[in-house]
Fe-S oxidoreductase (Flavobacterium salmonis), 443 residues
Amino acid sequence: MGYLDNILFAIVLIAGFAFFASNVKKIIRNINLGVDLDRKDNPKARWANMALIALGQSKMVKRPIAGILHIVVYVGFIIINIELLEIIIDGLFGTHRIFAPYLGFVYDILIASFEILAILVIFAVTVFWIRRNLIRLKRFIHSDLTGFPKSDANYILYFETVLMVLFLLMNASDLHLQNVPGGVFHKAGSFPVSQFIAPVFNGKSNELVVLLFEVFWWLHIVGILVFMNYLYFSKHLHILLAFPNTYFADLNPKGKFNNLESVTKEVKLMMDPNADPFAAAPVDENAVPAKFGASDVQDLNWVQLLNAYTCTECGRCTSSCPANQTGKKLSPRKIMMDTRDRLQEVGKNIDSNKGIFVPDNKTLLNDYITPEELWACTSCNACVEECPVNISPLSIIMDMRRYLVMEQSAAPMSLNAMMTNIENNGAPWQYSQQDRLNWKNEN
Ligand code: SF4
Ligand code: SF4
């Protein structure tokens, strides 16, 4: 490559990383719109969770076919991109396979393993495509996965295939140029897969094959930069966010709810037979939240917003949700997708109003998620158990229900009756406390 190519490459590289950095900044800003929450406790357990669930993909393999294929794509994609480092150095300094002389036979092993992984990735991606588009697994054709989210999943599969094919074509043309009499390129690498592709260049002039090599090289690296920037718009963001998401996930047992301190105090007072209801209780202004529960994304905590960006849209939650299975409107996957969509909308609002959110007469509640969906939840935690990246759709559902009940008194009639009974009788039944033991007088 000449100097002009190196300069052009530097410009493309800087532009790609700059655009990516600006989008990462937006994501962090949006996640920080959430309510503060301390998740610094127990770092040992958190690192273990991250290593096991994000890196080791322990929850993915609960469904073995998808799990193992996913590991192939994940490992393949990450490891092959190690070569990116060499490509970047070659591109910037006009060298060719700069690591080869330093790594010797290790280099050959590396390139050979990249090629084998590339072919495995193509195989796994093809199976994924077949599952989505030919076998049409129920969770991939569910009504909450239409429009862009449906196409997005396919775009990613196409992207990955094209990148792997370009990688192999790049190697094949390179190998041909290494083997021509006089050797246009120096000998470097071992090519167990692309050696079968290289013969297609036989009979072509060296100039043409060098040109083709450069085309494959450029398309490959530009493709990677485009893919990196596409992540911001895609569910594929999980390849990065699964790590912080599993680290900051709730460590409490799944059935444990986070009670509001101010409400807990009230209830304890109500249940304490020795409490004097007329005694002036000290009012702790800080303990009373400005708003109970959540009606919009800014009312959710930052971990819930991180959850929304991390959702892989795999639908494992929805496929195991009893409410969804019995035909209710609720889909925990949709809860996460709606939260992300609304968060993106709020973020765009802030971007176009000089850093300030201007009320847009919309909220996550009603405009995205309806009370009907929220009240269909049985709070069984199946969605949390199933999620391969430790997301909790249930926590968002509960916070939004809390808002409906405590801010709007908008619970279903049966619940309102129960809550009135608890308030008046200290129990969910319609009897006064004095009548509780009447049953034993009956014959
Ligand atoms: S907790 Fe609610 S949303 Fe999650 S699986 Fe159970 S019923 Fe569905
Ligand atoms: S919440 Fe988890 S299980 Fe549900 S779609 Fe998202 S990643 Fe999959």
